[in-house]
Amino acid sequence: MKKLLLTLLTLAVLGLWGVQGVCAAAPAADAVVLEPDFSFGTIAEGKKAIHTFMIENRGETELRVLRVETG
């Protein structure tokens, strides 16, 4: 019984190790924000402030921006 359990555990570990190599080799998107910080300075109340942040995809697959947060 212990031998069977040890064999199954070994196969599971080797299987997960193999999956890690496959996932690491897959092409991915690589987002690079050309200007990550921008200061708007002082903005009068009620006025709008607009700035465009340029994002470059240096990866091999489509880059999808799903969420943006302010800081």
UniProtKB/TrEMBL annotation:
Organism: Desulforapulum autotrophicum (strain ATCC 43914 / DSM 3382 / VKM B-1955 / HRM2) (Desulfobacterium autotrophicum)
Protein name: DUF1573 domain-containing protein
Superkingdom in the source lineage: Bacteria
Signal peptide (from-to): 1-24
Sorted UniProt keywords: Signal
